Amino acid sequence: MTIYEDEMDFIRWLFRQSPHLLYQFFSIPFALLFYILARLDCLTLTHRYVYLMSGGCVLAAVTMGPYACLLLVPAFWAVLLFCSLRPWNVHPWVLGTLMCWQTFWHFLIQYQEYWLLQPSNTRLLLTMSAMMLLTQRATSVSMDLQEGKAVPPTCVAGALPYLSYTLYFPGLLGGPLCSFSQFVRFVEKSGSVPPPPPSPLRPVLLKCLMAFSLEWARRILTGFLVSHPPGLAPFWAPTQVLWVWAMSVALRMRYYSHWALSDALNNAAGLGFGGHGHSGAPLWDSMSDGEPWTVERSSRLSEYARRWNGTTAAWLRRLVFQRCKVARLALTFGFSAWWHGLHPGQVLGFLVWAAAVQADYRVHRRLRPLASSPGKRLVYTCLSWAQTQLVITWVVVAVELRNISSVWLLCRSRASWFPVLHILLTFFMMCLV
């Protein structure tokens, strides 16, 4: 009875903390049903597109309620632009209109939270998360059209793959960004001819287990932090820094669990199969936003930035970094803050991250050659990893706190020393040149 009560208590806590995780988990059987029906040739190509699109509409209605229309409007609008505009003109219109629509609702949420002091609306927040992912997919298509990598739809039937891509349910609430061409190949190859990917049941179960294990560990760590606040530690004590670092770890666990479950949902439908390894085992890693071990062992800020939320980082690089001529790093991180909602903590956190990454290039360029022996390289790597962890700790906490008062408390903590010292070290090295 006690175990049952603990499990129910955990589920209630999980639904309050991360409702999108449970929604995605309950979507996995429908993704597996799509895989089975497509493999048995019970679905034609058109039916596969309709299944994925209608599943997205149903999932939006269940999770977002009346706010689902806020997501459907930009989805249909983007497809209308794909059909009506010339390929080289569609990208500015898609990017401009969808970002304006998204920004309006982000500012409305800030007005309700900061000025009217109203509690956050869970359904509206889920809608905004899905809207951000929709903007990703739509701008990815518009760039493909602009670069000649996709054929513009010329009729209603030709627009079905585009509409299905913008609303397909495995990627509606989260998940790695899948390119339009990859999505089309996935739908076309889901049938029995050509042979579909192997059964995804094993990777789905493993990733679900990983996601809920991370959430359970996050709950334990969060409870420990709440019951052991740092208090008024002495000036020299590292207690405050360690507490903020642990808080950042708990926040990052939420992202890792979300990514693992999103991968599982996509794999359940057959999306993400990457062929077979050297031993002949199937690989399901062609689409992923990052794993804890891969990301957290990064010893450089620039490396961490590329690995963290990998498909979004690649999208930002393609959308902003590769298209700008000046201040490319600052503009990329600045656009990321805009896309996330322009909360005060997000703006400050992303700008500090941009400055720290720029400093990272200069610092390692000067210091790396000094580590000549294997022992020195090991020490250098360990110190670099620790510095990366401390800077990322400040950035993640600042982005998650969002409001000005909480960010100000973070700025007054000892955890702020590390990003500041990292950036100042760059100016010191520039003066020595």
UniProtKB/TrEMBL annotation:
GO molecular function, one term: serine O-acyltransferase activity
InterPro entries found in the cross-reference section: LPLAT_7/PORCN-like (IPR049941), MBOAT_fam (IPR004299)
Keyword Endoplasmic reticulum: yes
GO CC terms: endoplasmic reticulum membrane
Keywords, comma-separated and alphabetical: Acyltransferase, Endoplasmic reticulum, Membrane, Transferase, Transmembrane, Transmembrane helix
GO biological process, one term: lipid modification
Transmembrane segments: 20-38, 50-78, 90-109, 378-396, 416-432
Acyltransferase keyword on record: yes
Compartments it resides in: Endoplasmic reticulum membrane
Pfam family, one: MBOAT
Membrane-topology descriptor: Multi-pass membrane protein
Protein name: Membrane bound O-acyltransferase domain containing 4
Provenance organism: Scleropages formosus
Lineage: Eukaryota, Metazoa, Chordata, Craniata, Vertebrata
Gene that encodes the chain: MBOAT4
